Amino acid sequence: MLIERAAAMLGRHEPVSLRSVVAGTGVSTMAVYTHFDGMPGLWRAVRQEGFARLEEQIAAVGITDDAVRDLTALGVACTENALSAPDLYRVMFDAATGSEDATATATTSAAATDETFDALVDAAARARAAGRFRADIDPARLALRWRAAGHGLTMLVLGGVITASTARAEAETVATALFVDAGDDPDRCRRSVAAGWAD
Amino acid sequence: MLIERAAAMLGRHEPVSLRSVVAGTGVSTMAVYTHFDGMPGLWRAVRQEGFARLEEQIAAVGITDDAVRDLTALGVACTENALSAPDLYRVMFDAATGSEDATATATTSAAATDETFDALVDAAARARAAGRFRADIDPARLALRWRAAGHGLTMLVLGGVITASTARAEAETVATALFVDAGDDPDRCRRSVAAGWAD
DNA sequence: GCGATGCTATAGCAGCGCTATGTATTCTGG
DNA sequence: CCAGAATACATAGCGCTGCTATAGCATCGC
């Protein structure tokens, strides 16, 4: 399928153009228009494919009785997904790539993000129910803070500003700071966060 | 100059192309090649212009005796700079935009980031010297955490995933969590962070 | 004054996304 | 089972992109 092909070319740092993506497949450029309504539609499909892969990786994170570990591990899964396919990640979250209308991209990203984001919110809610976080903590807000911080570190890695190992170390500190701020016990939080990276 | 023109067109959401940027200026397309070595060079120049403006806005943040407030305010200045010119911010930090070689963009961003980043590191160092942070805190690492979190929230706003007001609220919580984690007194930290937004 | 050097304008290249058009193929109704 | 309708296809070409080769012009050193 053209979507997988586009994603593969993206990973190989090859330019993905209307003509290059259909070259060798035997199909013509018109197929892109009948199936995807043009290149913006193909980018949209690639974006959804990226979110599907992210969702898959998110689902692979097991649920344990340590919800704080789970919450950490979910964030780690997002980051690992991004670093394993940087260009795809950029297509997913950067409205400029694919030169599509920014608002359309935003809608797609926001909707697709919600699904993968639910897992983090659930983990945060479970942690609160287990007494790890204060009762007045909004799980969605806490998950957003954690996800946004990870997203920022990831984007800086993708932009070449910092290295992946630096981001890894700082993410651990940030996670601990956020979760302790939400009410978790510092020592216990540190252990849970560390466990979140231990596969 | 073509750089300002390109930045202005970027802000007006107009497509910035070789021909469109020179249209009306009287100069020919060749000027872009003699002065900027092609479109990638022009994007590089626009990026530097963006960092210059950011540096200007960073410099406008006054130094007070409350270094934590200053550190917060510097992060706020970065965010405000981004939201006031979203497309320019994307060009600055997104390697894909301008379709330049990713590594070259990374080098430019990393180097230019260092200069604007120094102000945050200095503020963090002053806060540590004032006893607000623990002695074992690395100012550069703490500043990176704060900046990365703000960057992540900003990118999500630019991507349409969250609103600016949501980012504003979460940034305050994140800043407090990070600075308290670094050793600051919770109540005092909250006041300083809040003051960071109060212009 | 004059040759040399550097900048500029023009024309044209290959590539891009996209569309109009004619053809083939596949569903659908009787 | 077959005619008619609807859909998907390949081709050719449009206007645009970044870029470059060439020719003309200005300026500077001597």
Automatic annotation (TrEMBL), chains A, B:
Keyword annotations of the record: Transcription, Transcription regulation
SUPFAM superfamilies in the cross-refs: Homeodomain-like, Tetracyclin repressor-like, C-terminal domain
Entry keyword annotation includes Transcription regulation: yes
Pfam families assigned to the protein according to its UniProt record, in alphabetical order: TetR_C_33
Keyword Transcription regulation: yes
Protein's UniProt name: Transcriptional regulator, TetR family
Coiled-coil residues: none
InterPro entries in UniProt: Homeodomain-like_sf, MT1864/Rv1816-like_C, Tet_transcr_reg_TetR-rel_C_sf
Species this chain originates from: Pseudonocardia ammonioxydans
Residues of the HTH-type transcriptional regulator MT1864/Rv1816-like C-terminal domain: 71-164
